[in-house]
TrEMBL record:
A Gene Ontology cellular-component term: cytoplasm
InterPro entries (alphabetical): Acyl_CoA_acyltransferase, GNAT_dom, Ribosomal_N-acetyltransferase
Residue span(s) of domain N-acetyltransferase: 13-179
Phylogenetic placement of the source organism: Bacteria, Bacillati, Actinomycetota, Actinomycetes, Mycobacteriales
Key words of the record: Transferase
UniProt GO molecular function: protein N-terminal-serine acetyltransferase activity; protein-N-terminal-alanine acetyltransferase activity
Name assigned to this protein: RimJ/RimL family protein N-acetyltransferase
Length: 185
């Protein structure tokens, strides 16, 4: 059983596991950002959700995280949801993938970069982890800026299923190894 981590401070942002009491804030952020997120996020197929459904989803996320699976974090500025970031264990046992999104009212403020940086450092606390990856669709140019800024290396661009309406069918995979990360941050 994995215990919930302490909140992570990343400049003016606090990154912490979602709590069921955040369901209404998350619902509002997703609803307001729908046009911004829908082209890139495969999970948007299940939107819209009620606040109750979202609270159930958060409970599910917390249970998965406690069992050593994916971790879903809210990114907060004071009491406001400004984005989300996740640590996904879908790569292989030696690595994890970071995913992120930013509330449409807060884009281009460095939030996703700060959150991804903080989450990579958090991930590397696991001594068994060798690398962290960021994957994004080739057409998502805003998302591509983040791994580049953080010193990740583009490993390649691969054919991928078109899982969301804006997807090109080409996925970029960026990676940073533990030794490289220690040298950067």
């Amino acid at each position: 059983m994995v215990s919930e981590p302490e909140p992570i401070e990343a400049g003016p942002y606090t990154i912490r596991w979602w709590e069921t009491g955040d369901a209404d804030l998350l619902a509002e952020a997703v609803a307001l950002s729908s046009d911004h997120l829908r082209p890139w996020m495969p999970w948007f197929d299940s939107e819209p959700m009620t606040v109750e459904q979202r609270a159930e989803l958060i409970t599910y996320w917390r249970n998965i995280a406690r069992s050593g699976g994916d971790e879903h974090f809210g990114v907060f500025e004071k009491a406001n949801v400004v984005g989300a970031v996740g640590l996904h264990r879908r790569v292989d046992p030696d690595g994890v993938e970071i995913g992120y999104w930013t509330h449409v009212r807060h884009v281009r403020r460095g939030i996703a970069t700060a959150a991804a940086r903080a989450l990579a450092s958090y991930a590397f606390r696991d001594a068994a982890l060798r690398y962290v990856e960021i994957h994004h669709d080739e057409a998502n140019h805003l998302s591509a800026r983040i791994p580049r800024k953080l010193g990740f290396t583009l490993r390649g661009t691969y054919e991928a299923p078109r899982c969301a309406e804006g997807h090109s069918g080409r996925e970029c995979v960026w990676r940073v190894n533990r030794s490289e990360w220690r040298g950067h941050f």
